[in-house]
Specification:
About 30% of the residues lie in helices and about 20% in strands. By secondary structure, it is of the alpha/beta class. Strands 2-1-3-5-4-6 form a six-stranded mixed sheet, sandwiched between helices. The longest helix is centred in the middle third of the chain and has 14 residues.
Length: about 180
């Protein structure tokens, strides 16, 4: 069931270098794109879904080329300025979003799924902290950000989530191998 106080964010500003083309728009067997599946998977858990880092969506903040943190920063500021308590995030290459994950992630501070750091919960007040982090001289890795904010790592037994980095990964997930 969707939570009226939660914004969903699909982080889609990556370069898809291992995929060889824009994986967000890669078609799946049903004719819908990978990003369409990511949006549909996240939508039941949130009041609204935004796409970050792509034309027609929220622009990365403070500028393009910041990696997933630029998209997350845009989503956090959007959430803060539109009355959302926080952001549930996913990557554009994640066509599933486990039903029990939002409840497992929710809490006072940031949290991510073990092994999938883009599947996370981010309280909206972290927007200013992420601004500061991105203004500093660092490698802008998601792991560095997790350490900075003391994010919890959530483990959920029995999950078999796809890791789609190359066309053959998509083919295996999609049953077209």
């Amino acid at each position: 069931m969707a939570d009226a106080g939660i914004l969903g964010a699909v982080l889609a500003g990556g370069r898809s270098t291992r995929f060889g083309s824009d994986k967000a728009i890669a078609p799946m067997a049903d004719g819908r794109t990978l990003i369409d599946h990511a949006i549909a998977a996240l939508a039941p858990h949130v009041a609204r879904v935004v796409v970050c880092g792509r034309q027609g969506g929220l622009a990365d903040r403070p500028r393009a080329g910041m990696g997933p943190l630029g998209g997350l920063n845009a989503a956090l500021h959007h959430a803060l300025h539109h009355g959302f308590a926080g952001v549930l995030s996913t990557g554009c290459d994640m066509p599933v979003y486990p039903a029990g994950l939002p409840a497992a992630l929710a809490g006072d501070g940031a949290a991510v799924l073990d092994g999938q750091p883009l599947l996370g919960w981010w309280p909206a007040p972290l927007a200013g902290e992420l601004d500061a982090h991105l203004a500093e001289d660092n490698n802008r890795s998601i792991r560095g950000w997790l350490e900075r904010v003391g994010a919890r790592t959530v483990t959920m037994a029995g999950l078999d989530l796809p890791n789609i980095n190359r066309p053959d990964d998509l083919a295996r997930f999609d049953g077209r191998a």
